[in-house]
Design a protein that fits this description.
alpha/beta, Nucleotidyltransferase, domain 5, Rossmann fold, 2 domains, five-stranded mixed β-sheet, four-stranded parallel β-sheet, elongated
């Protein structure tokens, strides 16, 4: 899915961790006295999924799942029978998280508060102390509202077929977080601000302008790769530009101008092929966006 950059962002993509635990909680309700009934998490190392964590949590005596909560997550009290206690579930979660920071959707105001209360009540270390990054707040800074998980998934073309179940929401949120990192890293102020020394020479002599920006083909990553492979960059299409790289495949003003000048127009995948790469290579951890 293509998306438009409003302006250069204040989010420094390079400072956001690529190793983390993304988690989500399902609860008996939304009040301050809510109890955790499901915990789901995915552990990500260097941008790649390493392991997952998923468990129901038994209700404490006298507690019940509120009708409103059941209508959303479809977790019944019968499903919780025989589940681990909150002590066992949280202790396992602490071990799963280790020293990694947390990522989650709206965790600053809800999940972190609840999990911190659980840790205090059990007398166990709080994983919140590891630090945390909230996709709702990051997305709101980068793109704007609405910033609920469904809206963020839609914006980046991420599927979440089991929404409002802890494991599924955690994994979708992790995908959104990685998309946010790439989105932030792709919003270049000006190509003249980029600094990358050539490490290869496939594009020697080319003066390239890029148009468009997508999750699969981030503009900033591609601009850096062009510099690293010997090209020079220009912000706009001029008669001196030798190649326009169209990352979205749409009829933009730059595309029309390049056509008028007779400038070579190539797609993003064809550009990568020129330097012996594919779009999949951009997702590898050794290709680090610079921001």
């Amino acid at each position: 899915m293509a998306y438009r950059s409003r302006s250069f962002c204040n989010i420094k993509a390079f400072s956001l961790p690529r190793s983390y635990v993304c988690y989500d909680l399902e609860t008996t309700g939304l009040g301050s006295d809510a109890h955790v009934i499901e915990m789901g998490a995915v552990r990500v190392l260097d941008g790649y999924e390493d392991d997952r964590f998923s468990t129901f949590v038994a209700l404490p005596p006298g507690a019940h799942v509120e009708p409103g909560a059941f209508a959303v997550n479809h977790i019944s009290e019968a499903m919780l029978e025989g589940a681990p206690s909150i002590l066992d579930a949280y202790a396992a979660f602490v071990e799963f998280v280790g020293e990694l920071p947390l990522v989650g959707q709206n965790i600053k105001s809800f999940d972190n508060v609840l999990i911190g209360r659980v840790a205090a009540e059990l007398g166990l270390p709080s994983v919140v102390d590891n630090g945390s990054f909230d996709t709702m707040l990051l997305y709101r800074e980068l793109v704007g509202k609405p910033a609920n998980l469904a809206a963020i998934c839609h914006h980046y073309g991420i599927e979440n077929e089991l929404a409002h179940r802890a494991w599924a929401d955690a994994r979708a949120t992790s995908d959104c977080y990685l998309a946010i990192i790439r989105d932030a890293a792709s919003r270049s102020v000006d190509v003249r601000d980029l600094d990358a020394a050539p490490i290869a020479h496939e594009l020697d002599g080319e003066l390239i302008c890029f148009t468009g920006n997508t999750y699969e083909l981030p503009k900033r990553d591609c601009e850096i790769l062009a510099l690293e492979h010997g090209a020079k960059l220009h912000n706009n299409v001029t008669k001196r530009v030798t190649m326009l790289v169209d990352l979205e495949g749409r009829e933009s003003g730059k595309v029309r101008k390049a056509r008028d000048y007779g400038t070579a127009i190539v797609g993003g995948h064809a550009f990568l092929a020129r330097i012996g790469m594919t779009a999949e290579d951009l997702r590898r951890p050794n290709i680090v966006p610079r921001c």
